Amino acid sequence: MTDDQVEQFILKEIKKKGAIYWDMKYGPNHGIDPNPEDKMTPPCEKGIRSNRFESFMGCDKMRELLCKGKYNPYSDTVALKVPFQDLFRFWWNRCVVQDYVVDEILEDVFEYVTELLRPPEEKKEEEEMGVSIDFEQIPLFTPAVSQAA
After folding, report:
1. What pLDDT shows up at residue 104?
2. pTM reported for the whole predicted model
3. How many domains does the structure of the chain reveal?
4. ∠ CA(79), CA(59), CA(17), 5° rounding?
């Protein structure tokens, strides 16, 4: 999918769900006024409805919007209708100020390459190093003090 196709697909899913800006902005327990620009109609007659999303966080709302099948709020690994590579490219091209994240990317690449260059003997020492505790030497229970003394 191209970036334009991803954007159109997301907007189509939002429309299919019947969500508006205020659904995206507020949490699930917030009443949504479908016509906030209407100042003449009293609030009790406006038809305020519940939020279209079950989730509070934006990332969870996007999972809910783009998940295949029924949304499960307790699962972090949701199959999405948009391929992750396309979603990532869309994010990179449209949502990120790339200059701000270059340092983070370069730092991660540096750490990865540095680990590849680590001498084998250092890797072996790190793998062998472990933490062991001798519970026999740690006083876990103190003897009770005699009340009769």
Report:
1. 92
2. 0.67
3. 1
4. 75
